[in-house]
Specification:
202 residues; mainly alpha; Rna Polymerase Sigma Factor, Chain: A; Arc Repressor Mutant, subunit A; 2 domains; 11 helices; 0% strand
Length: 202
């Protein structure tokens, strides 16, 4: 390869550079970080959890946390890969402990609620590039804009997959009130997310 050919090879930023950009709120860097490291994160989670769907959910949790708590990343304590793998191991173990405490949780976790279907309906599966993780990040940001009662009900429906009746019991609130909070919350989320375009894999 001659000097000209070498000069034409695109430079790919390393993980630390990507994390620094993510820390500043760069969404393109976040997608690049996901594309680069998610296969390794998924492999580690699957080795721990021994279940593909649970591992995919753990991957989404990891990158959601990376984005939501991006200001906590400290490059002086290690590079992006060790940071992500440590986080992945922790989240996967958390899921194992949760499953051990609730033996029925695996069956329940794979029953999708209407709220989950509506908010992730643009994506065929969690394997669709970085779309699933990025959408989860944006949903979290949109949830933060809701009032406390709507947000609490929506988080229980979206993140924990609880039914309306289960949410009412958890919040000790009338079922009708819970349904109203979720209906209004979904309307606000649809408006907040209406301009988001999700690329499908080809």
């Amino acid at each position: 390869m001659n000097d000209r050919e070498q000069a034409e090879v695109p430079h790919l930023p390393d993980g630390s550079v990507l994390m620094a950009a993510v820390r500043c709120g760069d969404r393109r860097a976040f997608r690049a970080l996901y594309d680069r490291f998610s296969p390794e994160v998924l492999a580690l989670c699957e080795r721990i959890l021994h279940h593909r769907a649970d591992a995919e959910d753990a991957v989404a949790d990891v990158f959601w946390e990376v984005w939501q708590r991006r200001d906590r990343y400290d490059a002086s304590r290690g590079g992006a890969r060790p940071y992500l793998m440590t986080l992945a191991r922790s989240r996967a173990i958390d899921r194992l402990r949760s499953q051990a405490a609730r033996p029925e949780s695996r069956t329940e976790s794979h029953r999708r609620t209407p709220e989950q279907d509506e908010l992730t309906g643009a994506i065929d599966s969690p394997e669709d590039s970085a779309a699933y993780a990025e959408l989860k990040v944006r949903v979290a940001a949109a949830l933060a804009e809701l009032d406390d009662r709507q947000r609490e009900a929506m988080e229980l429906a979206y993140y924990e997959g609880l039914s309306h009746q289960q949410i009412a019991e958890r919040l000790t609130a009338p079922l009708g009130t819970v349904k109203t909070h979720i209906r209004k919350g979904l309307a606000k989320l649809r408006f907040a997310l209406q301009h988001i375009h999700v690329d499908r894999p080809r």
